[in-house]
Amino acid sequence: MKKSEFLTTAVASVMALAMLVGCGESAATTAGTEAGAATEAGASAGATFKIGAIGPLTGGAAAYGNAVCNAAELAVAEINANGGINGYQVEYSKEDDELNAEKSVNAYNTLKDWGMQVLVGSTTSACSIAVSEYTKADNMFQLTPSGSAEDCVKYDNAFRVCFSDPNQGIASAQYINDHNLATKVGIIYDSSDVYSSGIYQKFIEESEGKNFEIVSAEAFTQDNNTDFSVQLQKAKDAGADLVFLPIYYKDASLILTQANTMGYKPTFFGVDGLDGILTVDNFDTSLAEGVMLLTPFAADATDDLTVKFVSQYKEKYGEIPNQFAADAYDAVYIIKQAIEAKNVTPDMSTSDICEALKSAMTEIEAAGLTSAKMTWAANGEPNKEPKAVVIKDGAYVSAQ
Hints:
Number of strands: 16
Distance between the termini: 44 Å
Structural class: alpha/beta
CATH topology of the largest domain: Rossmann fold
CATH class of the largest domain: Alpha Beta
Largest sheet: 7 strands, mixed
Number of domains: 2
Order of helices and strands: EEHEHEHEHEEHEHEHEHEEHHHEEEE
Radius of gyration: 21 Å
CATH superfamily of the largest domain: Response regulator
Strand order of the largest sheet: 9-8-10-11-12-15-16
Number of helices: 11
């Protein structure tokens, strides 16, 4: 891992500030602003906000972590280019946790040693929960873009951008019912994962009284996630015309591959964990044709913000951004709005910054890629509307 910082200042009328902080091949980006604006905002020379991000940049969930960290980086660069936050530039650094809770804590400590004041992360639920024990002890503000388990926001310093697991399960059952997508539903879920189990449990509860019947519900664990023939056969034998997959994309790619081998072709319906299935190595993406998932972001949307974001993300990172990227992009701008709402400055202690942002989060109303209107309760939960996308011709398109 290597880190580098470049700071250039001019004491004349114009100051340009550019800074690069990195991890591995990661880039932590700051861009320029004028000295006059900084002076008017009361920014002292060299003072910056330090925002860190954590996610799996390598391993089986790398599509999530890289999307989060890349989009956060992109947002920081934009903010700095437009004058920063309250006249101060932003430094950004990201760390890899390899989808491992212990390594996520190590990543947090590395970022804290760097001087992080606000955390965007962790990306996944178990890692976010593990890190929250430490952000709570340090009273550091934590905004996870995509940690959806209930306990990700069990402390008052932690908020999230995405829907919680229960809300995803509830919204999925309602969407399937409201759009008459199935009469018989099978479920395949990961009982060893808090994310998957949480969604599954709420989906079961919400399905009571709906216009479809749950005919099979089969679990697997990460110790036996290579052969799904038994789970698929039970769903097929029960006549399930839709299979609900509240799981991550890598396992889902195996399920779709094995279902195709069996000649079983139900509608497959998932939640945000399926976002990334088109990136799995050696997966025949044609098998994902028609797969549906609930997600608050569709890259094909035509609103100006989405078009701009997708274009810039593709240009910088060479791929179409997924929902995790959109959540992280929104997260950085939400932090900016909260900081500005309370006139926070980078010379404040991490704890004082946290207290200010906790208060701001229950007062602000944010508009972003994932919702035109986002508000938060004191328990860290966002209020926003779910959307659905379907995979068509190898791309995510709106299902509406």
